[in-house]
Amino acid sequence: RKLVAGKDTHLTHGPQPTDLCTATMTSAAQRVAAFLTGKIQAGGELADAWTRLEDLYSRRLWHQITVELESVFVHPSLSPNGLSEVYENFLKDFEDRINQLALVKLCLAVAAQKPDPTDAIEFLTSIQTKVEGKKDFAATVCVTSAIAELHLRKGDTATSKTLLEKCLKDLDNLDGVTPVHAELFRIYADWHKVDGNYAEFYTNALRFLGCIDTDTLPVEERVRRAYDLGLAALLGNGIYNFGELLQHPVLEDLRDTEKQWLVDLLFAFNSGDIAKYESLQGQWSKQEDLAANGPALNEKIRLLCVMELVFKAPSKHRNLAFDVIAKEARVAPDQVELLVMKALSLKLIKGSIDEVEQQANLTWVQPRVLQKQQLAAMQEKLREWQTTVRQTAGMMQTHRPELFVQ
User: What 3-state class would DSSP assign to 8?
Assistant: First the structure.
């Protein structure tokens, strides 16, 4: 080694880190420039868009580039592998500089063009690693839930569930309700549908619909979702409140169709109308899942009938005789006690059973979302209560006027 002017010459020769970085950036810029030039020269419907992107890229206007790409990515003129080409030769160069949630949404479109789910999972997993490094929870949940959906489609429910549970924990870091919530609830509902858990499917499917404007869904999808929700409400364990679904606009898509019977059946369950339930048996028994769960449906409608009896009874006359319950619920007299005990154990009602007097002394019924007819009954109860209060106040004023301040 030679020393020149007191310096070690071997330290000043060869490519330096800064030089390598500059060379890499130049190479990337040249690749992007060549890609955009080729697209512009090729012409076509997107030629103007590529020209705008070239100008925006030269000025490093990342947000404007993102907006322009969102339009390009949904253009029908792109080839089946066109989005992957755009990502590899253009978007990849500045993916760490744009909004990470916007990046994920663009990458989801890229993954959707990959015919092999394994390739799509591998691609999105690489994106997941990048956005996790940015600590962007919305982007992380979005891409992770998409990966979970791909695993679900492949039949790997265990991996899918693990990823979805991770997403649910990350939701705590997000404020308000966002489209990211909607996608997660949609995919989680699909997972529970595959798993056969009607109650969890019902909960997550309703959450999904609560996060979006249902008018943005195609009519066919609204009909399918309303039908699946209706079946899940009837078959789900622990679901005894149908009011939220009955008031949801998505259910209107089943009216005046061949599936109208399901709407009628839901209303029959909500009001504990056993006569209506039995009159619809010829239709609902043709549905495979409902037919297979006939005994469970029979029990649920009778429990709801007991709830309705308690709701309708005046608050001071809620001692229901066994024979009244047997008649309304259409069960044998020796089955009444078991039916009431079941309702008590499920906390649908509160009270006690008097075996000597053969009656149920009930004091409370589980709150529900009420239909118009049930609201009318509630209004009548309030009027009766108001009258009772006035009569009591009048009696006290007559007999103990000193209790009232003049």
Answer: strand
Average per-residue pLDDT in the chain?
A: 90
Q: Return the structure tokens found at 112.
A: 């959707």
The confidence band for 392, taking pLDDT boundaries of 50, 70 and 90, is confident
Beta strands 359-365 and 349-354 are antiparallel
Please choose, from the candidates 379, 368, 202, 384, the residue with its C-alpha nearest in 3D space to the C-alpha of residue 271: 368
How many Å apart are CA 194 and CA 152, to the nearest integer? 9
Whether this model's pTM surpasses 0.85: no
3-state helix, strand, coil in the chain (%, to 5): 70, 5, 25
Report the C-alpha gap between 246 and 263 in whole angstroms. 8
Alpha-carbon gap, residue 116 to 94, rounded angstroms: 26
Chain centre distance of CA 361? 39
Q: Comparing C-alpha atoms, which of 44, 80, 48, 86 is closest to residue 66?
A: 86
Can you state the angle between helices 47-58 and 17-42, rounded to 10 degrees?
A: 160
Question: DSSP 3-state assignment of 176?
Answer: coil
